[in-house]
Amino acid sequence: MKLEGDIVTPQGVVRGHLHIEQGRIASVAGASLDSARAGEDGRPVLLPGFIDIHVHGGGGRDTMEGGDAIQAIARRHARHGTTGMLATTMTAPIADIEAALKALGPVCRERVPQSARVLGVHLEGPYISPGRLGAQPAYAIPATLDEVMRLNEFAPIKVLTIAPEMPGHIALIGPLRDAGIRVQIGHSNGSYDDGVAAINAGAAGFTHLFNAMSALHHREPGMVGAALAHAQHAELIPDLMHVHPGAIRAALRCIPGLFCVTDSTAAAGMPDGEYRLGEHTVQKCMGGVRLADGTLAGSALTMDQALRNFVQKLDLPLEDAARRVSTVAADYLGLWDRGRLAEGAWADVVVMDAALQVRRVFVEGEEIDVVVDA
């Protein structure tokens, strides 16, 4: 199969074609092109499939439901260009988390047709600060290595969010890293020093930077200060509600591996109304998702809109925006054959028009049924 267009590659934009064989990219051919000209004359723009490591739900379904919810979630996000994702849990009683992970395990092992690849699990809680729950239910507890590794047997935990100030958490970071689990700092009321200690112990990044963590003050830099001063990687929700564009610009200057996540809920890809987020009921209205008290509760963001926000609202060059919705997260997870349009990589491709609207999506060479606006 051959796809023609303006191709966003790790080396820049190429006007030419991708040749796909057996689900992988066999070759990329063409001539270099100034990225500002991508999509001119109605030519399609080919980007690497989006990688989202923080997905609670979509299409009216929530990860914590168990059952076939994850299949519906992965299908909905694939239609918006997400080709790889981490199913993300909520803080809940351990028995509920176990039930969710048992349902996730088989889907992590084998991709469901017409769906994004579920690359594993992001365990966001219950090992967080009771003082920084955000929209998480009040079941926060300290972690133990035995418990985390037991949960990992049900489904592969790729990312684990912890509050480093919780008892014993700093000491867990090294063993978890050695077990292949990336520890992220989040939902934390800890100090700048707590954040630096966690980074020095091997913490890999920060969960939804700025949100649900101690803020930056010039005499008390907090977790945000630790991230801006020391982090190599951090998630960020670029729906322009969770984080002001000015704060996003500051983070882009400070953190080399800043990348996009949606933190999406069941409301993603759905009309306004009530949806589930773990045990909470949330309301989608005017593009946001909130608890009854007005607290932001995840988002309705999809990765194609995140890309458009980076390019059209924050003026990032297309290649840089594509890296932050695809390549950086893939590299962070150690997936060198995803998140890039290059020979040997999986044929995870998003075909967009000049306005960056999704027209076609391929996951491992399979074309996804995308509903395209007339």
By DSSP, the count of extended strands is 20
Mean pLDDT: 96
- How would you classify the quaternary structure? single chain
What characterizes the major β-sheet? 7 strands, mixed
Weakly predicted, low-confidence segments:
none
InterPro entries: Amidohydro-rel (IPR006680), GlcNAc_6-P_deAcase (IPR003764), Metal-dep_hydrolase_composite (IPR011059), Metal_Hydrolase (IPR032466)
Enzyme class: hydrolase
GO molecular function: N-acetylglucosamine-6-phosphate deacetylase activity
Family: Belongs to the metallo-dependent hydrolases superfamily. NagA family.
Task: Summarize the structure in words.
- Helix 5 (192-201) packs across helix 6 and helix 8 crosses helix 9 (318-332).
- The mean pLDDT is 96.
- This protein has helices at residues 69-78, 94-109, 145-152, 169-178, 192-201, 222-230, 245-254, 303-313, 318-332, and strands spanning 2-9, 12-21, 24-33, 45-48, 50-55, 57-58, 61-62, 82-88, 117-124, 157-162, 182-185, 205-206, 233-236, 257-260, 273-277, 280-285, 288-290, 349-352, 358-363, 366-367.
- It folds into two domains: 1-48 and 339-374, Urease, subunit C, domain 1 (Roll), CATH 2.30.40; 50-336, TIM Barrel, CATH 3.20.20.140.
- With 374 residues, it is α/β, with parallel strands linked by helices.
